[in-house]
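B., you asked whether I could sanity-check this one before it goes into the benchmark set. Here's the sequence:
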Amino acid sequence: MYHRPRPLEYESGNAPSTVHRRLSCLRMFYRIMHVDGHISRNPAEYIKMPKVFYDEARITGLSRTEMSALVCEGRASKPSEGALITMLALLGLRVTEACNVDIEDFQEYERDHRVLRMIGKGGKPATIPLPIPVARAMDAAAAGRSSGPLILRADGSRMTRRSADRVVKRLAKKAGIVKVISPHVLRHGYVTASLDAGIPLRDVQIMARHSDPRMTQRYDRARGNLDRHGNYVLASFLGGAA
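And here's what the prediction gave me:
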């Protein structure tokens, strides 16, 4: 039987990762349509997905020095930008979560800890303790206000995801960081820096609010699969032969 090549991959020349992403959206669309009763069956249920492989050694994010430089650059900028960078890098917030923080969300204490109460990804509530430097940066952005959005744009409106992305890129450039960077790279750096600081993997999973421990383990492998690579052990074991 003749099998026609997949148009997205072979005829249009898309990479497997691009095909996988597009087909995933299509599958989810039909799944929701089926679950909601708009169609009698899901035509994409058994669609064959291309295999996508990632070189985890290249998923390194920002180094400790780069993270520190970016946080310092943020604090030297406008208070709102300092609070944004601080929440991304030192709390590990997703960019949408950071933009949605209101001043009322971090005025409470829980067992003598000042905390940020928020609704995270998937509608999950979270209570996050605020270290003193983080609380100071957030208070500075509040600038005496008692309510409303914490991070504001120049026109006084709530900062958006796109605005935050531009802020991160601009401050990263000022900090001398030449890597391709986005707000999520700071969250990545938050996880890897926590692991480098010796915080147990289970605790980092809780900090990052990963529902699946395998996600946190992927960050751990990405940071350590070169440092702990067996080639170094073998070369030392073989001595002169290496």
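One thing to flag: The beta strands are 108-110, 113-119, 125-129. Otherwise nothing jumped out at me.
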